[in-house]
Amino acid sequence: MSCVFCSNAEIAQRAIARSDLAWAVPTNIPIVPGHTLILPTRCVATFEELTTNEREVVFSLFSRIKKALAVAVGATGFNIAWNEGAVAGQSVPHFHLHVVPRYEGDTGITEYEPRTFLYRPGSREATPEAELRDMATRIAQALG
Ligand SMILES: [Zn+2]
Hints:
The chain is an alpha+beta fold. It contains 4 helices and 5 strands, in the order ααβββαββα. Helices cover 31% and strands 16% of the residues. Strands 1-2-3-5-4 form a 5-stranded antiparallel β-sheet. The chain starts with a helix and ends with a helix.
């Protein structure tokens, strides 16, 4: 259990919602504000390692987060993806579904390059923790 999602207290404290099986958190390098990760609580790298129950809970939380992002950041569309394997750009070996809220005029994904499209164009700087926590609070409030 040494992956950053399981061991970094700052990330854990930023969680929007958490259950025994899954949780959600704003990523530290959002493509656009509100870019959120949905993760199983158990530290496994690939979709196949998830139990049927974990898959159900992860995707159920995903549906709730979409609705919350529509309220919290005015999302009118979404990019949803996960990277699996280092060659595909998976930087943390703990399954995580990216939910990228989109809205007219945003500065999000403008071109598709499979290994990098979930990275913010031109920058790998983390967003300040206070800003991420504020976003987590906004989404959690919209989540109800
Ligand atoms: Zn982990």
